[in-house]
Design a protein that fits this description.
Helix content: 40-55%
Order of helices and strands: HEHEEEHHEHEEHEEEEEHEEHHHHH
Number of helices: 12
Structural class: alpha+beta
Largest sheet: 7 strands, mixed
Strand content: 15-25%
Distance between the termini: 31 Å
Number of strands: 14
Radius of gyration: 22 Å
Mean pLDDT: 92
Shape: globular
Low-confidence stretches: none
Length: about 350
C-alpha cells in the first residue's frame, strides 16, 4: 500500500493486546444474565421511622439522577445479609473491569453514552435480545467495528434502532410493554405521535427537547413503510424494505460504555454492509443519510476483504431478487471510498455484484 493509500484508508487495526483485552471483556459481558442499568453504585444501610434497618442499592440512572431502591432486610437476617453480599460482589466485579472499558475507549473502541447504555441494558434485562430482538443502525455499526478489531471515523447519533424479524420468542411473556421497559432506565420516555393521526406511534423519545429516541422496526413485505403491530411488546413498528435480509443472521456481541458493558444481538457485518448499500439507494431527498450509509458499508467491506475474504461475495449472493435493481448504483456509489485505497475490497464487491446482474 502506498503512502497516499495509507492516508486514504477507511480504518486502522487495533493493537493485538487491545483486541485480546476486548475479547476478555466480551466474554464477561455475554455471560451476564442481568446488568446494571446505569452505574454499579453501592449497597448502603438505611433505617426507617420505625427503626427497621435494611439494605438499599444506590446508583445513578440513565439520566444521571441518583436512584435508591430497597434491597433486603432486616440487617442481620441471613437472607438479607446474603443478598447484600451478593450485590456487593457484583458491584466490585464490575468496578474492577470499568477501568479496562475506559482504556479501550481511549484507544479508539466505540463507547456509547449513558442514556444509550441504560436503554439497551434495560432491554437486555427484559430478555428482548435473547428472544430475537436486534440492535441495528449506527450503534450496531460501532459494535461491529469493535468486534472486528478496528477503529474508524467516529459516528454520532441519538437514534437507537431495535428490530425483530418475527415474533420475539420470550421464555416467559413479559408483563411490561416496550414503553415500560424503556422507562425502567429512569429516562422519561414518551410515545412520538405519528405524522398520520390514524396510525399508532412506532417511536419513543425522551420527554422535552431532547432528540434521543428509540425506533421499533420490522421487515416490510414490499417497498413501502407500513405500520405493523408487535403484540409481544404491546407496541407497533415501522416496516422497512429488505430488513428480512439484514436480520436473517445475527450474533451476540458486547455494547460498551463508561458505566459497564452488556450483551446485544447484532447483524453479521457483511449483511450489514450490503444492506446499507441497498437502502442508500432507497433514500430519496436524504443525501446526507445516504452518504453515511455508503460510508459505513465501505468501512466494513474494507475490513472484511482483508480479514474475512469471501464474506462480502457470500452476502451479495444472498440479496433478495427484487433488490438486485439497486445493486449496480449502490456499488458505484461505493467506488470513491473503496477503489483508491482498498482495491481488494473493491474487486470483491464489484466482482460479486457483476456476477449477480
Amino acid at each position: 500500500m502506498t503512502d497516499t493509500n495509507r492516508r486514504l484508508s477507511l480504518y486502522a487495526p487495533h493493537r493485538r493486546a487491545l483486541t485480546v483485552l476486548y475479547a476478555d471483556m466480551e466474554s464477561y459481558a455475554i455471560n451476564q444474565r442481568e446488568v446494571f442499568i446505569g452505574t454499579a453504585g453501592s449497597v448502603i444501610e438505611r433505617t426507617n421511622a420505625a427503626g427497621f434497618r435494611f439494605y438499599a442499592h444506590q446508583s445513578y440512572d440513565g439520566e444521571g439522577k441518583k436512584r435508591e431502591r430497597y434491597l433486603a432486610g432486616p440487617v442481620g437476617d441471613p437472607k438479607a445479609d446474603a443478598a447484600a453480599a451478593d450485590l456487593r460482589a457484583r458491584i466490585q466485579e464490575l468496578k474492577e473491569i470499568v477501568s479496562s472499558l475506559r482504556l479501550l475507549g481511549r484507544e479508539g473502541f466505540n463507547l456509547t453514552d449513558a442514556k444509550t447504555y441504560a436503554t439497551l441494558a434495560s432491554l437486555h434485562n427484559h430478555g428482548v435480545f435473547a428472544a430475537g430482538g436486534m440492535l441495528i443502525g449506527s450503534h450496531a455499526y460501532g459494535v461491529l467495528l469493535n468486534r472486528l478489531g478496528v477503529r474508524a471515523t467516529p459516528y454520532a447519533t441519538e437514534d437507537i434502532d431495535i428490530a425483530r424479524r418475527e415474533a420475539l420468542a420470550f421464555e416467559k411473556q413479559p408483563e411490561q410493554g416496550l414503553l415500560e421497559m424503556l422507562k425502567d432506565t429512569g429516562i422519561t420516555f414518551v410515545e412520538v405521535p405519528s405524522l398520520h393521526r390514524k396510525k399508532p406511534p412506532t417511536s419513543f423519545k425522551q420527554r422535552g427537547r431532547s432528540r434521543f429516541h428509540v425506533d421499533l422496526l420490522v421487515p416490510s413485505a414490499g417497498e413501502d413503510f407500513p405500520v405493523v403491530p408487535v403484540p409481544e411488546l404491546k407496541a407497533h413498528a415501522t416496516g422497512l424494505p429488505y430488513l428480512s435480509y439484514l436480520l436473517a443472521e445475527s450474533q451476540t456481541a458486547m455494547l460498551m460504555a463508561r458505566e459497564g458493558c452488556c450483551p446485544v444481538r447484532v447483524p453479521l457485518p457483511e449483511r450489514f454492509a450490503v444492506h446499507k448499500l441497498l437502502v442508500s439507494r432507497l433514500r430519496t431527498g436524504r443525501e446526507a443519510k445516504s452518504d453515511k450509509d455508503v460510508f459505513q458499508a465501505c468501512v466494513l467491506c474494507a475490513v472484511l476483504a482483508e480479514s474475512h475474504p469471501g464474506a462480502i461475495e457470500s452476502a451479495v449472493a444472498q440479496i433478495p431478487r427484487r433488490a438486485k435493481k439497486y445493486l449496480a448504483p449502490a456499488v458505484e456509489a461505493a467506488r470513491r471510498f473503496l477503489e483508491p485505497a482498498h482495491g481488494r475490497a473493491w474487486e470483491e464487491l464489484s466482482g460479486a455484484a457483476a456476477g449477480e446482474l
